[in-house]
Design brief:
Layout lengths: L19 H9 L2 H6 L15 H16 L10 E14 L13 E16 L2 E12 L8 E14 L2 E11 L30 H5 E13 L2 E12 L3 H8 L6 E4 L2 E9 L5 E15 L9 E15 L3 E15 L8 E17 L2 E11 L19 E14 L2 E12 L17 E12 L1
Antiparallel strand pairs: 1-2, 1-17, 2-3, 3-4, 4-5, 5-6, 6-7, 7-9, 8-10, 9-10, 10-11, 11-12, 12-13, 13-14, 14-15, 15-16, 16-17
Amino acid sequence: MYCPASIDRPARIVQSPDTRARIRRADLRNAGKREDDARTMNTKKDNNRITPFISFLGMALILCIHAVPCRAELYPGLQIHGFLTQGITSTSDNDFFRDSDDTLSFHFTEIGVNASWSVRSDLQLAAQILSRRAGRGSDGAPDLDYGLLDYSPISDLNRRYGVRLGRIKHPLGLYNDTRDVAFTRPGILLPQSIYFDRLRDLLLSSDGVQVYGERITPLGSFTAQLQLGYPQVDKAIEYSFFGFDAPGKMDGNPVFFGRLLYDDPSGRWRLGFTHSGARFDYEATGNDFVSDGFVYLRQYILSAQMHTDDWTFSAEYLRQPTRFRDLGPFLPQRTFPLESYYIQGVYRFAPRWDLVLRYDAIFLDRNDQDGSETTSGPEASSFARDWTIGLGWQPKPNLLFRTEMHMVDGTAWLPAQDNAAPQDQERRWKLFMFQISYRF
């Protein structure tokens, strides 16, 4: 969900870049197990909808980790992993991840510890605690990133059907399941046209239920997921919808996500379709200049990915009608027909090295791609076109270095918390990033 303002591919340990395409073909036959291995990342500090079940599940796993030695004879099926990522950002203009304009910002840190426990062949528990600093919108407070129970009563070599309960990552596009694991994403930043970092918590997961089914046939592998849950709503959504922190309160109703994935028998092709819907109600205060109203989103994403021995090509296309209703004279009733897409290539040109090339574009109103008709802020705030080039080096399986440069025209995905004055933002700007990641 990308908000106009003024796939289940669970997290797992990825092999070195030069073998990623080959390993993925072997993984196709293990689609059932692949879901069990890890679900990674992100919680929320203002989590007023967390249920007692989720709290118990997360705390039980963490207490198990810290209170008792995790010896195989005591806890068969228990796995514990973690990661640490530190980034550096600098921009030619504007700010990204705090104060970065013509200086260095170290305000990008991710620390996570996760555990999964196969209680029996058809039942697994998984949870992760994450600390994330990423500009003024994320302060680094440890939170429950995900915590779930996965029950699959029907499972064999060619099929798997089950249900997940708890805090579950949304089945969205190609990368949402693993977006916060540096080893499983192509580059430091994911394409911001689809995986909007300003709304990371909202897009990442919800507290509810997911039903899923996987089937491997001679024609290929088919996966279907349906999820319903309460989203993680905080002040970041008001910055994205309104461009400021409104005096009232935004509440989220249950959100719906559905995703279909197809992998061909060779493992070279993956195709996907994602659909989601969400409504957010705004409750005004006594002296509020925003009225009681709501914002309604629907999202349609087409995804495609192709693997060769040396290349991985990915592309995704998003259509998202966003309706603003009854929010007062400052936010007139209208519908934004948002459109966005990206095209990306990852070239594994040498063992342990890869090169990332990407073009990424978003238009908050597909009928006004230059922003000339916008009335909610500067013209450049209604679009962004981003050319990206990046380099990755993985000298060891548990150590990864990345650097990348973004040449951006437009400010549609700039973090509003880091750029309080839209009129001072520069339309054309560059973003430079460096990152080091370690996992265990």
